[in-house]
Amino acid sequence: MLETVDEVLAMLIADARTAGDDEADMVEMLARHAQLPPDEVRRVASMGYTEVSQRLHQIAGRKRRGLRPL
Is residue 66 situated within a structural domain? Predict the structure, then answer.
């Protein structure tokens, strides 16, 4: 059972890699759909997945209240 945001995102990344999908796109869509606040997005960006981390840092910005459009 997945209980944390980190676990859900890690599972989503693994699934995207297996399917050959863009993992950064998948994580961005989930973050936006779940309406994660920018501080939470910045926190999970440190999970260690390079491509995903870069995308999450881009959409979280520095001090905005909402996620930036790309």
Answer: no
Which pair of structure tokens corresponds to residue 15? 């699934």
User: What's the pLDDT score for residue 47?
Assistant: 86
27 found inside a domain: yes
Give me the domain span that covers residue 16. 5-60
- Helix, strand, coil shares of the chain, percent, nearest 5, are 65, 0, 35
- What is the rounded distance in angstroms from the CA atom of residue 28 to the CA atom of residue 30? 5
Residue 20, SS3?
coil
Name the band, by pLDDT with cuts 50, 70 and 90, for residue 53. Answer: very high
Residues in the chain: 70
